[in-house]
Amino acid sequence: MQCNLCCSENILLKFTKRYDNKYWRIYECQECQVEYVCHNYSQEEVLEIQKSYFNLNNTSTDNSIYWKNELAIIMAIGYNSGAILDVGCNDGQFLSICSTPWKRYGIELSTAGDLAREKGITVINKEITEYKFPDNFFDVVTMFAVIEHLKDPKGLLKEINRILKPDGLVVIMTGDKNSFKARTKGENWHMYCPPIHLWFFSRKSLDLLAESCGFKSIYHRYTSGGMYWSKNRLFQIIEKCFVKSIFEKWFKQIPFYDHLYAYYRKEQ
């Protein structure tokens, strides 16, 4: 067996996870550190489970403050206008923050795309590889909580490289399996829910993937993603007042929390 990412044969079975009355094997590459789901089910079965999940979870609460902060970071890096594409744009909350002079495009396969269209966003209801955007078309491409769902992350990143302008920016948010929170949670980490999630990255494996597709890492940060360690309300208050204020404000490049935001520039 070879790693689906780096082709190494140094692969180990990490554990087996039960979901939807089926068993899913999660393997770890000892070279690039990526973990991925291996199974004997048909692509149609996997897609049906994913489709049911996305149609039940295709809207989000109002996170406008959160998305304004994300746009501010992108602009601080040096991207202030142009064509922007959000892959998996959901109901368009992030793109609705990107007002003039941004030209806004979204990829969304679920019915949430209709809500994004109502906000004046150009939404494509196709896979990005099917739509065939022109070469060097976008200034910025974002993927928030998308890459872990994909059958072929490498193929998608290669396509993004093609449609990005020289020196264009791609932003990827996913879970970091090597973060302190993920290691503490172990097999109970919320990201381990195959086949909804098929890939589990560390920062190292995500950087290696991006580099193999023609991108260079320029910045990264970690957040809690609005999630808490405990369901206990008192512990949540303590975490919000003390822990989050430290690691989300002052030490956000330390992998204490598990939501990794990685920023890559297309190399010439």
Please provide a written account of the structure:
- This protein is α/β, with parallel strands linked by helices and 268 residues long.
- 31% of the residues lie in helices and 28% in strands.
- Helix 6 (153-163) links the parallel strand 7 and strand 8 (164-175).
- The longest helix is centred in the C-terminal third of the chain and has 15 residues, at 233-247.
- The radius of gyration is 18 Å and the shape is globular.
- The two termini are 34 Å apart.
- The relative contact order is 0.14.
- The model has no long low-confidence stretch (mean pLDDT 91).
Summarize the structure.
This protein has one domain (52-187, 202-266): Vaccinia Virus protein VP39 (Rossmann fold, 3-Layer(aba) Sandwich).
In the CATH hierarchy, what is the superfamily? Answer: Vaccinia Virus protein VP39
Number of E-state strands: 11
Number of domains: 1
**Helical segment count:** 9
Question: Termini distance?
Answer: 34 Å
CATH class equals: Alpha Beta
Largest sheet: 7 strands, mixed
Strand composition percent: 25-35%
CA radius of gyration is 18 Å
CATH topology: Rossmann fold
Order of strands across the main sheet: 6-5-4-7-8-11-10
Q: How would the global form be characterised? A: globular
Task: Please give the share of residues in helix.
Answer: 25-40%
Overall pLDDT level: 91
Name given to the CATH architecture: 3-Layer(aba) Sandwich
Please provide the ordered H/E string of secondary-structure elements: EEEHHEHEHEHEHEHEHEHE
> What kind of assembly state do the chains in view correspond to?
single chain
Which class of secondary structure composition applies to the elements?
A: alpha/beta
